[in-house]
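pls ignore typos typing on phone
zinc ion + seq
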Amino acid sequence: MTTRSVSPNACGHCGIDQHGHAQQWTTEAGWHTWTPPAQGQIKQRMRARTAKEN
Ligand SMILES: [Zn+2]
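k done
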């Protein structure tokens, strides 16, 4: 458990949890507040999580 996995419901732009987000900058989105991830993004993250656990 050394790698931090992105939680499925983290920001759609940068992957930071809503709890600790405030304002963040990414090259794609620029300055932004927490944005809900797309449905497909959530699924993808859940799959990545499951793959890591196995
Ligand atoms: Zn973000």
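Residues 18-53 form one domain. The pocket of zinc ion is lined by residues 11, 13-14, 16, 21, 24, 32, 34 (CB under 6 Å). more later
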